[in-house]
Fold MmcQ/YjbR family DNA-binding protein.
Amino acid sequence: MNIESLQLYCLSKPGVTEEFPFGEQTMVYKVMGKIFALTSLDSMPLSINLKCDPEKAIQLREEYDGVLPGFHMNKKHWNTVIAEGSVKDALLKEWIDHSYDLVVQSLPRKIKEQMT
């Protein structure tokens, strides 16, 4: 996955915005104002921070060399995924979906209703 395909995939989801709250080089994806993915435009290879269920986060770190505790994030709830090719795009999209879904599930019902 490259930065353009990450951008298109994230922005295709309901309620998602792309922002730069941490400076010009950190692209942040939010659903209804809550972060679910972020990446540095400088990182080579591409690395993406994704929210993750704590138990699943540990499992993924043990199973994949390219999955690390979330850089500059709460390491219990976030993973950093290095998208250098060892993780297939389909699997990375599943993890993006998981991150998005976790954030959506935590939103108040009133805000979820605004998404449709």
In short: Residues 3-107 form a domain with the Aspartate Aminotransferase, domain 1 fold (CATH 3.90.1150.30). Helices lie at 3-11, 54-63, 89-106, 109-114. The mean pLDDT is 92. The chain has one domain: 3-107.
